[in-house]
Specification:
Strand content: 35-45%
Radius of gyration: 42 Å
Largest sheet: 6 strands, antiparallel
Oligomer: single chain
Length: about 325
């Protein structure tokens, strides 16, 4: 058994024996090719190729055959996939795409296909067969092939579907390179395999991202202070970058805003209106009820309403007016 890798395609070559085909002992030389397209998605099928020869290997077998193909868990206790395909050979050579055949249903003695797709079949995360088999991380799969010539069915030796050595460490995942992923670990479980300035992960103990620089694990940005990593939240708090500790930390938003300027001075949470459109406002003397703002020539001050606009009582009213010299004087208003 040997393996050859070419760009995005991985080929596995194997030699196996066909015990009996009709009345002639034959040998089946097969080539199994699994093409993995790293650009976008997992392919929906894989290539299965072979050549049917007589026992001496001197003549090809020809004619019409049906291949029943099944994929099982390693113990063959859980059927993951089942299909069948018809082939016609003129020189013994055939090539099919497993995954493009007819799913097996109501075809004794074969078990009906369970309906899984290839992404489900080959990932070692979800349970199968009603939970009776939970894949281990390194579990492979078993391919079982039954050859039917119209009269006799011959089952080939089990064929192991395992990762090609070079595929155990992939350059990309769905086209994304290693530096496009962030792993997670604790200080004690940091990975033994790491690449300088590429391997990066979230350290659950430190609550920080860290990267291997070739000699040590170095905290990376963004990272969060211990107080920012908990579940508790505080009203009106935001995340603030601490340049000294190089980490994000919680901060009261009121402490982050600059002091106000112009007519309004002081902090956002405690400010004072000190002028109106640049003209000074002087309320150093507390205003009394009913007073209004009056411009005294240099600043706005509190003044009685009668000294500003309208005074008097009843039908005897006083209307303030400019006297032409910058001051105000009373102007009587009376009924006709």
């Amino acid at each position: 058994m040997w393996y050859v890798s070419r760009k995005n395609k991985i080929y596995e070559y194997a030699t196996m024996s066909l015990k009996k085909l009709t009345s002639v002992l034959a040998t089946l030389f097969l080539v199994i090719g699994l093409s993995a397209n790293a650009a976008n998605t997992m392919p929906s099928n894989f290539t299965y190729q072979g050549r049917l020869m007589n026992a001496a290997g001197t003549a090809a077998l020809t004619g019409s055959l049906t291949l029943y193909l099944e994929i099982y868990n390693p113990a063959k206790s859980c059927l993951l996939y089942s299909e069948h395909q018809a082939i016609t050979t003129s020189d013994g050579i055939f090539s099919i795409q497993i995954g493009s055949g007819t799913r097996t249903a109501s075809t004794p003695p074969y078990t009906d296909d369970p309906g899984n797709n290839f992404v489900q079949i080959f990932k070692n995360t979800d349970p199968f067969c009603g939970g009776s088999w939970v894949p281990a991380t390194a579990d492979g799969r078993v391919l079982v092939v039954h050859v039917y010539d119209g009269t006799t069915t011959t089952t080939l030796a089990d064929q192991q579907l395992t990762p090609v050595p070079q595929a155990l460490v992939a350059d990309t995942l769905a086209g994304v390179s290693i530096n496009g992923f962030v792993q997670s670990w604790t200080t004690a479980t940091r990975p033994d395999y790491h690449v300088a300035n590429i391997t990066i992960g979230w350290n659950h103990d430190l609550k920080k991202l860290e990267m291997w620089n070739g000699a040590a694990w170095v905290p990376q940005t963004p990272k969060f202070s211990a107080s920012a990593s908990g579940d508790a939240t505080t009203d009106k708090y935001v995340m603030k970058w601490n340049a000294a500790s190089k980490e994000w930390e919680p901060a009261d938003i009121a402490t982050l805003l600059p002091n106000l300027g112009g007519d309004v001075t002081g902090a956002p949470s405690a400010n004072t209106i000190s002028s109106l459109q640049g003209r000074a406002l002087d309320l150093s003397t507390a205003p009394n009820p009913g007073q209004v703002l009056k411009w005294d020539g240099t600043k706005w001050v509190a003044a009685n309403e009668s000294a500003v606009i309208i005074g008097g009582s009843g039908t005897n009213n006083v209307l303030s007016k400019f006297d032409g010299t910058g001051g105000l004087k009373d102007s009587r208003v009376s009924d006709d």
